[in-house]
Specification:
CATH topology of the largest domain: Rossmann fold
Strand content: 15-25%
CATH class of the largest domain: Alpha Beta
Radius of gyration: 23 Å
Number of strands: 22
InterPro entries: ANL_N_sf, CapK_Type1_Caps_Biosynth
Helix content: 25-40%
Protein name: Phenylacetate-coenzyme A ligase
Organism: Rubripirellula amarantea
Largest sheet: 9 strands, mixed
Number of helices: 12
Keywords: Ligase
GO molecular function: phenylacetate-CoA ligase activity
Number of domains: 3
Shape: globular
């Protein structure tokens, strides 16, 4: 055991114990995990029915009682919680058992710019969930690492954190201040500390990758790039891989639910952490799912945190879209799989007939050409025209045939319902490190409502 691992055990005993519990699940059977998930859901519903004002009233309104949960399918009898409920009735989500206790708070501006906050359960060491994920990738939390975030520790706070985690060392780069000098210092710190992994926003990591490539900087000790807060299209993954020389992984989470799902080293989809989270795919009021099967259908992501008894979120609609996958991962772990959440920060693109083509479709248009395209964005102007901005890996290499292929595929899809323009230019789509790949002046937040006629893809 290294000194870092020993101190880790001494400083984080609660998290280490939880980590041990989580790690054991990797060896469970699928049936055992599914039954455990169901038992956790029943216990949480009972807790909500007796101690949480919001659910006590919501259950009464739909005529539901905790005893009505006879089978896993009955979980769908519970009402879906919307973000508006959270904003307007925040205090009623607090369990009476935690009244008066100090609870950690998580906040976000949200995709529409409206502030959102939740309380975390003070008895749950959430960081342990990410430790299991790191081990899937061949690293662990005691290793030196780099962080590229908007909020990074400074001054006395940084000194206290450095002291607490010593001899583990952290390097930081602000996604809000990515000057050449700051990136130079960050690169030097990564090399000096022999960092094993780097975590950061997709857009910020892409900007740093460009700097690294331009300066021909190598990181021989780097083992993993961990991307967050935005979809990871294959061209971007390949670009990061080529710049940093190590595998690039992604995970899915939010302010309300840290670490919902993550890919393993097989990169064949996202493993849902169903021992601590429950994920459903549901239809919207205007776009129901087929009743026969909910596998492999794109829909709204609804999640339940099975560990947060202080501020429970049952069947909470996250505002993202995804789909469950009806297959197993070659890694053999028991967790159910979901597809990559490609359209998380993407608008739908509206056709002239009012039909909308979802952002999930547009984020995949260059997946077959990762060796040529390093970055892209899709922008719809107020006049309805759609511009595909793209950046190539090698400016000297002709991509005319590739662009023509993509153009033809898109023309087949849109059927002359919008004007399509391709523009070869530098693409910089991140704001404070968070990336938006597809945005529309017609359908984006605070503009036209989502259409009831959204095409599948």
């Amino acid at each position: 055991m290294t000194l870092s691992q020993l101190k880790h055990r001494l400083v984080h005993p609660k998290a280490v114990a939880f980590d041990k519990q989580l790690s054991a699940v990797d060896g469970w059977s699928k049936d055992r995990l599914a039954d455990y998930n169901w038992q956790q859901r029943k216990a949480l519903v009972k807790h909500c029915a007796t101690t949480v004002p919001f659910y006590q009233r919501a259950f009464r309104d739909v005529g539901f009682e905790a005893g009505d949960l006879k089978s896993p399918d009955d979980f769908e009898l519970l009402p879906i919680v919307e973000k508006t409920h959270l904003r307007e009735q925040f205090d009623e989500f607090i369990s009476s058992k935690f009244a008066g206790r100090k609870m950690p708070e998580a906040t976000t501006g949200g995709t529409t710019g409206e502030p959102l906050r939740v309380y975390c359960d003070p008895d749950v060491a959430m960081s342990a969930i990410s430790w299991r994920m790191l081990r899937w990738w061949g690293v662990d939390p005691t290793m030196n690492a780099g962080y590229v975030y908007r909020a990074i520790p400074k001054g006395l706070r940084k000194k206290l954190i450095d002291l607490a985690i010593w001899p583990t060392r952290r390097a930081y780069l602000s996604a809000l201040d990515m000057t050449d000098e700051n990136m130079r210092q960050f690169a030097s710190a990564l090399k000096r500390t022999r960092a094993r992994y780097v975590i950061g926003y997709v857009g910020a990591l892409q900007a740093f990758a460009r700097y690294v490539a331009a300066k021909d900087i190598k990181f021989p000790d780097l083992k993993v790039i961990w991307t967050t807060s935005a979809p990871l299209p294959e061209p971007v993954r390949q670009d990061l891989f080529e710049s940093f020389g190590c595998p690039v992984y992604t995970q899915y989470g939010s302010c309300e639910f840290y670490f919902l799902a993550a890919e393993c080293d097989q990169q064949s989809g996202l493993h849902i952490a169903s021992d601590v989270r429950h994920v459903e795919i549901v239809g919207s009021l205007t776009e129901p799912l087929e009743a026969s099967t909910k596998m492999d259908q794109m829909g709204d992501i609804v999640a339940t945190d099975l560990t947060n008894y202080a501020f429970p979120l049952l069947r909470y609609r996250l505002g993202d879209r995804g789909r469950l996958l009806n297959r197993s991962c070659p890694c053999g772990r028991p967790y159910p799989l979901m597809d990559y959440v490609r359209g998380r920060t993407s608008d739908n693109i509206q056709m002239s007939d009012g039909t909308q083509i979802p952002g999930e479709f547009w984020t995949t248009i260059f997946d077959d050409f990762v060796d040529q395209i390093s970055a892209f964005q899709v922008y719809q102007a107020k006049d309805g025209s759609v511009t595909v901005r793209y950046e190539t890996k090698d400016p000297a290499r002709s991509t005319a045939a590739t662009i023509e292929t993509v153009r033809q595929r898109l023309e087949d899809k849109i059927q002359n319902r919008v004007k399509l323009i391709f523009s070869h230019e530098k693409v910089d789509g991140h704001t404070g490190g968070k990336t938006q790949y597809v945005f529309s002046e017609l359908t984006g937040p605070q503009r036209l409502p989502a259409s009831s006629n959204v095409e599948s893809y």
